[in-house]
Task: inverse folding
């Protein structure tokens, strides 16, 4: 009886465990941090995870199987992918939409053709209850839902914008919604509205004439053979990419703007932040504890390297930091000679633990969404120095919200940075505002990690959550703009015009004939 009871307990505990495939093929550390956190939370909830990733952990968590696609690193040299000097000289083309889409298509080809990934797909006994697919300017991985005949969830690492919202509802109006590559935030001027409209129009043209055809080729070459081998019905990629059950968005209204979205849009911004802040290393703890005038933390993130700054910028930054009473922690990949005594170099920085310290007064950042989320979480004002992609709009939103100042990346930015530092440290409104936003951020019904787990499980329990699907997909585009009504009204008025005109001419002719007879 005891054995039977034990087996029943095991079955009961495991009955709610699902098999989940998480796909994150982007060779960028910031993306890995986010998907690693998804895997950690879901595996902690007892689910079995298969994780397609380029960053291979030394020891995977229990219940996590790694599919190694680290060959994706060969697509570009990370040291050269974001070259600060090229950005300074305005010769960098890696951030252009065409270059980015070309890179993403190459990445999709390399991921789907990877032997390790193909081995996973070839196993006919493998199945999944749900897929979680990171969206990054491509929808080709939506075809995997046809392979495994299961629902899937989009995951977006950035604030909601038209390209991702278009997949679960319909495109937001560009007159008051920023493009992901924009440097403007609403309310827009006339020229900014025209610019946002052109961004969306250009993006649609590129997707229609370039990425769509490439994605269909990849789907036909690498995924359809596996669908056929499993005996499944083949759907078009155009159908599949609009069939997501949910969008998990790394966003929150405290960070971005109050965007209109459907019921299956789930904001979970901040889920990657540890609920229990890890203690600082002893030497760093001592430095921060003894910083009587406070600490300024300076980091350009994981994809940008401070040692790529030209020497004149490094020296000018050291000079202005040396004038400050505050202690400066600078995340830098190598030591700097002749640095002031108040400047400490960190080749590796426990960012969350630094921001959580009571003496951290200011964060100088590149404006990545992870860093922006963490500064709201811990309530620290920022100075943003955006370099590429969504960093511009992230920093501009932060300035608009009142807890940040923006400094433009340039050879002469040190003096502007010094003025911004003094302004934020002297004016309490920046700290006050970020504390207000931090309250909004934390004041939720449930923590973002709990939301993440709940909604993923909800999709499986409800077989794809069709009850959350936007009705926008049941209406054709011409019906949304009432083109059919316009045609009907036009037809009625045109017909009425010709009938009345005919009647008028008929009566006129009769009257003329009658007059002539008389």
Result:
């Amino acid at each position: 009886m005891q054995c039977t009871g034990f087996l029943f307990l095991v079955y009961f505990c495991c009955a709610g465990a699902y098999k989940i495939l998480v796909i994150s093929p982007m060779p960028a550390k910031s993306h890995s941090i986010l998907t690693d956190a998804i895997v950690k939370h879901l595996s902690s909830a007892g689910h079995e995870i298969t994780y397609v990733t380029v960053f291979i952990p030394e020891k995977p968590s229990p219940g996590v199987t790694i599919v190694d696609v680290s060959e994706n690193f060969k697509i570009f040299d990370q040291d050269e992918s974001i070259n600060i000097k090229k950005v300074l000289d305005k010769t960098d083309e890696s951030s252009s939409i065409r270059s980015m889409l070309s890179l993403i298509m190459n990445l999709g080809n390399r991921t789907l053709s990877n032997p390790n990934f193909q081995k996973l797909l070839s196993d006919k006994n493998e199945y999944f209850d749900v897929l979680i697919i990171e969206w990054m300017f491509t929808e080709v991985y939506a075809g995997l839902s046809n392979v495994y005949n299961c629902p899937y969830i989009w995951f977006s690492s950035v604030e909601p914008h038209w390209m991702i919202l278009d997949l679960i509802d319909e495109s937001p109006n560009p007159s008051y919604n920023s493009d992901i590559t924009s440097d403007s935030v609403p309310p827009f001027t006339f020229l900014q509205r025209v610019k946002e409209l052109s961004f969306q129009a250009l993006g649609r043209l590129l997707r229609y004439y370039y990425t769509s055809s490439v994605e269909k080729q990849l789907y036909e070459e690498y995924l359809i053979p596996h669908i056929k081998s499993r005996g499944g019905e083949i759907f078009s990629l155009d159908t599949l990419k609009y069939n997501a059950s949910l969008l998990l968005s790394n966003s929150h209204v405290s960070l971005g703007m109050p965007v209109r979205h459907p019921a299956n849009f789930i904001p979970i911004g901040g889920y990657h932040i540890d609920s229990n802040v890890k203690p600082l290393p002893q030497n760093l703890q001592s430095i921060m504890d003894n910083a009587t005038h406070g600490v300024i933390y300076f980091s350009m993130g994981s994809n940008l390297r401070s040692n790529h700054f030209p020497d004149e910028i490094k020296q000018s930054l050291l000079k202005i930091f040396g004038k400050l009473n505050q202690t400066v922690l600078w995340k830098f990949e190598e030591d700097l000679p002749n640095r002031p005594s108040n400047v400490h170099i960190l080749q590796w920085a426990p960012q969350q633990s630094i921001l959580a310290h009571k003496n951290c007064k200011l964060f100088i950042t590149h404006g990545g969404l992870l860093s922006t989320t963490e500064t709201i979480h811990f309530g620290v004002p920022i100075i943003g120095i955006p370099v590429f992609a969504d960093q511009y709009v992230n920093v501009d939103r932060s300035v608009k919200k009142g807890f940040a100042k923006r400094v433009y990346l340039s050879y002469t930015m040190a003096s502007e940075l010094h003025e911004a530092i003094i302004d934020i440290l002297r004016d309490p409104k920046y700290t006050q505002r970020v504390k207000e936003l931090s309250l909004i951020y934390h004041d939720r019904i449930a923590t973002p990690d709990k939301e993440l787990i709940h909604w993923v499980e909800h999709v499986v329990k409800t077989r794809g959550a069709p009850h959350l699907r936007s009705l926008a997909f049941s209406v054709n585009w011409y019906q949304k703009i009432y083109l059919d009504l316009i045609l009907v009204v036009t037809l009625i008025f045109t017909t009425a015009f010709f009938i009345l005109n005919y009647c008028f001419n008929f009566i006129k002719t009769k009257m003329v004939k009658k007059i002539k007879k008389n």
Summary: The longest strand covers residues 19-24. Residues 333 and 347 are 5 Å apart (CA to CA). Residues 190-229 form the longest helix (40 residues).
